[in-house]
Amino acid sequence: MRRIIPLLIGITFSLNAQQVFQKKALLMGVDFEFTVVANTKETAAFYIEEAIKETVRIENLISSWKSESQTSDINNNAGIRPVKVTRELLQLIKRSKRISELTNGFFDISYASLDKLWYFDKPMPKLPDVVDIERSIDKINYKNILINEEESTVFLKEKEMKIGFGSIGKGYVAEKVGNYLRKMGVKAGLINAGGDLTTWGKHPLRNKWRVQIADPNGKLVNAGIFDLYNSSVVTSGNYAKFIEFDNKRYSHIINPKTGWPAKGVKSVTVFCKNTELADALATAVFIMGQKKGLMLINELKGIECLLIDENNKLYRSTNLKLN
Q: Is residue 33 classed exposed, middle or buried when 0-12, 13-18 and 19+ CB atoms within 10 A define those classes?
């Protein structure tokens, strides 16, 4: 059940009487913040409620944790039969496979076969068994996600395969809901989907939307202040969700090639025009590590990255400028 904080706040004014309104809600298991620029509180409340409804709709479509979702239907029929899905879900899976190719499989939505071994929202009594991990990673291969666009079906080739959108879902929602509000006539706004941010239009006072990056140890540090305009930023880190055994921290970001939590990096922030892509790339770079990850980012046009390694050393992609 979603918990909506019943608070709509107007926080700034401009000379043309436009105001910035915010509302927070607990959705998809994380904190969302919806920010819109509007002339009245009533107009803003309408737009934000529509954004919340759209978020819930998408969650019901893509969540692998909801038994009635199309994603769960795909997983339940792995190795059995193709499943007819909406064009929206099919295209999300298709784009996910393309990002898998781009990242050489370091991003892979079929990682979800590991979900039964690792969990970070409740205590784990012990680390997963090595044999169980090896058995699960045998099921991870985005190339075995078969798409039939004419029939609008998705088929997982191997039994016990499973897909999940934990590394792209929030970015997809932020991008989709932002576009939805634009079409409704919202001239400017910001959506923060649990750390996946998308912005559009001009802030009434500053024109651009200002964000500051939090350090991996949970405190704000001047790692960078950035002005965004019609752009997105996503951070993946080991500081929000993790478990500890024998004083060793295990991140919730799992390497699909090994089945174990990624090591060597504390935080990755990716900047680009598309929140969905930024979300997926932030995960991939976190897993790939500083050298391979930044090498990939530097090859991509219009995408930049800020990385903090396990020794708190900060790295930037070639064209990233800090304010």
A: middle
